[in-house]
Specification:
The protein has about 700 residues and is of the alpha/beta class. Helices cover about 35% and strands about 20% of the residues.
Length: about 700
């Protein structure tokens, strides 16, 4: 095994080498040695060890001069943070990389080129602090990285600039916050074969959703990964269900969302001299690319088991960076950090925030967190204006990136025009932030009193004024399970993950009609017979919703399958009973296609079906025949079909209905109305409507007895 003094190749590095090569390089070495053998693609490379960074400082007599500069830092308000950083970096950049270090790096790079069988090798050069990615301290985004570096002079310059990045002003403050001494942190520099994601796509994956650990979230966009760090884009997103990841025959994707991907970051061109001049540029993404997923389903399904293998190897949740090479079209894992954002255990005590009043909605975006805050708005254009932010004000800006870190912890909440669920804001401000608003900096005035609420579902809302709210606590650990099988009635799939934390035996009724309203927003017959839709005011929104689908019926199938599978996954392996709609045959056939996809393609055999408003036994027989004609057969793969008991005739003939179906659901509202006749929505005769009426209770009793 070839080995260079103070240079370690990835095959010589494990996770226990953090003190020599830093957290980032140790992680890459661990991935390369442990995951490559099980078919997870990891690019090869080497690390210039931290010992060489210390030698560089010693040979240039930098210790005392750096210490003198850092002693001038004002540690109460950090008002001179930028100035101190500039002076420290100037000291580093005015020094010289010793000849022996340059020679070692050059020789190692030649060897990497030989191992990679590449003559014109391009490399990525990344800083790796010796405390980076430790459980107690994550330097993610604090140090510099340089991409697509080629040639010896560029490589040496990139290493030099990595050394200087230890003293960016965000990197100076972070060690101070974590309790490290000023010069305790050293830099190892990783040099790995570059992945040409500038010609394809890149992104990040979390091996746990913040609200549900059984899922993997993958985000992607066109071009280089730095757009995720900078928070300049809203990215595509896929959600996958972990328990099915190891079954190659199943469609693993629970949910997919194609977002705007506003910019594509690419290389600007090659400089002959320095890494600093080897620039990257952000170009507006074309409309066609915005409307196209940055990975296809096959690639997502290839990537997700890799993420799961990494989580299982480390036995902890991971934050994973991936990249697709536009030259060889291969996917690669280029980093795996400890996941420090999402909860690790099911919450036993939950604080529930709820607004007690409403006001004018100013704007809304993607919620990050589940809390509420009110304060004055502070609009800032850049981190350099950070000293204007007063404690517990609400920070409003176009986007945040690692440069904002020293400022953000002063804010009561953060509002960004841009960004998504995996942007940098999400990493550092998970408790309360709203991103992707689009227009917050235009609509919110400086000094305006506002209330930020992330406690109202998937949207983060910003209201005018100072609103009141209440906080209640629910201790799940003290709730006993009753003898009765407690099951939810569910209308909104967005609530499924949160509700699954409560004691339950599954979902007794999911209402398809509400899922159509919430997720699809188009009547199914308008998708089955589009030629009959002639009103332009209706055609335009349908065209916008079904954008990218050649067959609009497939839009219904995919979106409805997402809504049902999210709930099926949240409560898996407990039952989910889905109540079909009242639509005519063509609409009903679409629903059957959905259920076939959810059960047979996605593997959710815990999904059962409920037929509503079945007036006669003959109608029950016909609907079972219709379901079978759509290739859903009662009893096949455990498929159970239930029926709603809503009419007195259902009760009178309950024995015959029981011979056709596997179960009953008693709709006491309809049963009461159709027994006693009063309209339950009529205020003038509401006193006559009572489910406690002896006649209604007797019908319920008879139904249970027949069942």
């Amino acid at each position: 095994m070839e080995k260079y003094k103070s240079i370690l190749f990835f095959n010589q590095i494990g996770i226990d080498a953090i003190d020599q090569v830093g957290g980032k390089n140790a992680s890459l070495g661990e991935l390369y040695n442990q995951l490559n053998p099980i078919n997870v693609n990891i690019p090869n490379g080497f690390a210039v060890t931290a010992a060489r960074h210390l030698l560089f400082r010693q040979k240039n007599n930098l210790e005392k001069s750096l210490d003198d500069v850092l002693n001038l830092l004002g540690t109460k308000k950090y008002a001179n943070l930028s100035e101190i950083g500039e002076k420290a970096r100037a000291l580093i950049l005015s020094a010289t990389i010793p000849d022996e270090i340059q020679a070692e790096i050059s020789t190692a790079c030649q060897s990497l080129s030989t191992r990679s069988d590449t003559k014109d090798l391009g490399v990525a050069v990344q800083s790796s602090a010796t405390a980076e990615n430790l459980p107690s301290a994550s330097f993610a985004g604090q140090m510099e990285s340089f991409l697509n570096i080629s040639g010896e002079s560029q490589l040496i310059d990139a290493v030099h600039r990595c050394y200087a990045s230890l003293f960016t002003y965000r990197a100076i403050k972070y060690p101070h916050d974590m309790g490290f001494a000023k010069l305790d942190i050293t830099i190892s520099v990783g040099v790995r074969q570059v992945v040409r994601s500038d010609l394809a796509s890149s992104g990040v994956a979390f091996t746990s959703d913040p609200s549900f650990q059984n899922t993997i979230i993958i985000n992607g966009s066109w071009g280089l990964y730095e757009n995720f760090v900078k928070g300049t884009i809203t990215s595509d997103e896929w959600m996958l269900f972990k328990p099915t990841l190891e079954n190659p025959k199943l469609n693993l994707i629970l949910k997919r969302h194609c977002d705007r991907k506003e910019f594509t970051m690419v290389y600007a061109g090659k400089s002959e001299e320095t890494a600093a001049e080897h620039t990257i540029v952000n170009t507006p993404t074309t409309i066609d690319k915005r409307n196209q997923f940055s990975l296809n389903d096959k690639e997502v399904i290839q990537l997700s088991p890799w993420c799961y293998k990494i989580e299982k190897h480390y036995k902890k949740l991971k934050d994973i960076e991936w990249a697709k090479d536009g030259v060889n079209t291969q996917l690669y894992i280029v980093q795996a950090r400890p996941e420090t954002v999402h909860r690790k255990d099911k919450k036993q005590v939950r604080k529930i925030y709820k607004l007690k009043e409403k006001a004018i909605l100013i704007t809304k975006g993607i919620e990050l967190g589940d809390k509420i805050a009110t304060s004055k708005a502070r609009l800032l254009n850049s981190p350099q204006e950070g000293n204007q932010l007063l404690d517990r004000e609400i920070l409003i800006t176009n986007l945040t990136n690692p440069d904002w870190d020293p400022i953000m912890n002063k804010a009561a909440a953060i509002i960004n025009n841009k960004g998504g669920r995996t942007s940098h804001t999400e990493i550092v401000a998970r408790e309360l932030a709203v991103v992707g608003c689009g227009d917050a900096t235009k609509l919110i005035k400086r000094g305006q009193q506002i209330t930020v609420s992330c406690a109202e579902g998937k949207d983060g809302n910003i209201y005018e004024g100072e609103l009141k709210w209440e906080i209640t606590e629910q201790n799940f650990s003290q709730l006993p399970m009753r003898d009765t099988d407690l099951m939810f009635i569910l209308a909104d799939s967005d609530c499924a993950f949160e509700l699954s934390n409560y004691l339950n035996k599954g979902v007794g009724l999911m209402l398809v009609a509400f899922a159509i309203s919430n997720s699809i927003k188009i009547h199914p017959l308008a998708l089955c017979e589009p030629e009959k839709v002639t009103n332009k005011a209706t055609i335009d929104p349908i065209s916008e919703l079904t954008k990218g689908y050649e067959d609009s019926k497939q839009y219904f199938i995919d979106k409805m399958a997402e809504a049902v599978s999210i709930v099926a996954a949240a409560f898996y392996p407990k039952d989910l009973i889905v109540r079909m709609s009242y639509f005519y045959r063509k609409g009903f056939a679409l629903e059957c296609e959905v259920m076939k996809k959810v059960r047979n393609e996605m593997g959710f055999l815990n999904v059962k079906l409920m037929i509503p408003f079945c007036i006669t036994v003959g109608e029950g027989e016909r609907v079972l025949a219709e379901i079978a004609a759509n290739k859903l057969v009662r009893g096949e793969n455990g498929l159970k079909l239930c029926v709603m008991i809503e009419l007195p005739s259902n009760v009178i003939l309950a024995g015959k209905f029981a011979s056709l179906f596997d179960g009953f659901s008693i709709d006491s509202n309809d049963l009461t109305q159709l027994t006693l006749r009063p309209d339950r929505d009529s205020a003038s005769i509401s006193y006559l409507f009572s489910e406690q009426n002896p006649a209604v209770k007797n019908l319920i009793r008879k139904t249970i007895h027949a069942a």
